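sry for the spam today, last one i promise. struct tokens for design, 405 residues
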């Protein structure tokens, strides 16, 4: 089968890292991604049952994929990945066997104990499978999720192999373009469900890419957070338009969000020594969907005393980050990358909750976030759109393996 495979090497990683910053035209060819013919995956663990082949219809390019291919991912999680691997963990496809044969499914890409043939660890026993203790153990090579494990190809291929526990049926009437957004929506939804903002809460979303817009969608879709005052930092007109459609006041930068908060009487800056800027008041909840040093600094500064900062931007090492506001304002800081059984939804899986909300609210059209789609043969064009999204206007870029070049 045709697949886009990534093989890590330190030299290629360094070249991609420097090419992206100094010679953007070289960023894509230096990424290390290659279109190859690979054998269909075989069930791990000696062919034990429960594995289902899935024909891929759409597979998104995630910000974490972009970070890996541009050499911007640090080594912290390297014990829990294995290469070479076919990338792609945002997968919509059609199950080819089992109880859901012929049905559209969205995959939970995490590879916890059950997929590895192991008894449940404490996190898995609680339904918190994205926090599994054994991502490097069992019948599979190390890998937290599909696309970062050499034994199971990800969705940038014609077919994936998934454990039956990873499959979530797509509701009738939910379009493919919206369904492929269920996985990133689940990440955002999991963060919002952890502590839903009350009516009238002041919410700042830093970043209006896929995850930032999914946070805004979650705030619209959930009944509890209705009536929040949402402000979103959007870098280009397409992002601003979609953020406004999801009920947010779109601004162009964190400084503009600060000025808006001042104008609304939510906070006031205080000048200090050597150009330092203090802040009184601010936002009840700040979602950082960027993950840069600048966005993290803005999140900590613009949250009110006793407020909450949620990290969804997969930030890594941030040299020079000033953490003063984290302790001086006694902020709650939480990180999110996955999902699982949601206590507030009766234990339902976050992806199922996400698709149910989408199906029940067609007026909140997340399919509009899918701005670009490409066959596998045009992967360099797809990566250019994703890497240089300000130029391309891309929000979500996806591969459609079944479509011709």
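last one done:
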């Amino acid at each position: 089968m045709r697949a886009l495979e990534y093989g890590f090497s330190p030299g290629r990683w360094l070249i991609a890292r420097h090419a992206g910053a100094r010679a953007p035209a070289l960023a894509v060819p230096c990424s290390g991604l290659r279109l190859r013919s690979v054998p269909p995956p075989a069930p791990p663990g000696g062919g034990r049952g429960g594995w289902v082949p899935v024909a891929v219809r759409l597979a998104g390019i995630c910000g974490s994929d972009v970070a890996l291919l541009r050499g911007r991912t640090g080594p912290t999680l390297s014990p829990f990945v294995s290469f070479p691997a076919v990338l792609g963990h945002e997968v919509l496809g059609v199950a080819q066997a089992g109880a859901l044969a012929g049905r559209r499914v969205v995959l939970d890409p995490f590879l916890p104990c059950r997929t590895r043939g192991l008894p449940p660890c404490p996190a898995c026993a609680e339904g918190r499978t994205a926090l599994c203790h054994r991502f490097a153990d069992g019948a599979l090579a190390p890998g937290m999720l599909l696309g970062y494990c050499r034994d199971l190809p990800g969705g940038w291929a014609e077919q994936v192999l998934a454990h039956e526990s990873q499959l979530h049926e797509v509701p009738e009437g939910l379009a493919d373009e919206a369904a492929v957004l269920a996985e990133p929506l689940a990440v955002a939804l999991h963060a919002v469900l952890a502590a839903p903002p009350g009516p009238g809460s002041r919410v700042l979303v830093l970043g209006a890419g896929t995850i930032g817009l999914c946070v805004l969608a979650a705030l619209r879709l959930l009944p509890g957070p209705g009536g929040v005052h949402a402000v979103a930092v959007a870098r280009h007109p397409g992002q601003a338009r979609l953020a406004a459609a999801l009920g947010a006041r779109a601004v162009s930068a964190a400084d503009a969000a600060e000025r808006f908060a001042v104008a609304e009487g939510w906070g006031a800056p205080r000048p200090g020594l050597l150009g330092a800027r203090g802040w009184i008041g601010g936002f009840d909840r700040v979602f950082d969907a960027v993950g840069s040093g600048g966005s993290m600094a803005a999140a900590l500064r613009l949250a009110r005393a006793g407020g909450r900062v949620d990290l969804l931007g997969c930030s890594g090492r941030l040299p020079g980050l000033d953490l003063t506001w984290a302790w001086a304002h006694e902020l709650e800081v939480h990180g999110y990358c996955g999902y699982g059984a949601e206590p507030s939804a009766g234990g339902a899986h976050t992806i199922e909750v996400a698709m149910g909300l989408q199906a029940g609210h067609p007026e909140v059209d997340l399919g509009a976030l899918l701005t670009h789609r490409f066959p596998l043969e045009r992967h360099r064009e797809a990566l250019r759109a994703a890497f240089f999204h300000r130029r391309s206007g891309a929000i979500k870029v996806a591969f459609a393996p079944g479509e011709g070049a």
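The chain has a mean pLDDT of 92. ok im logging off now
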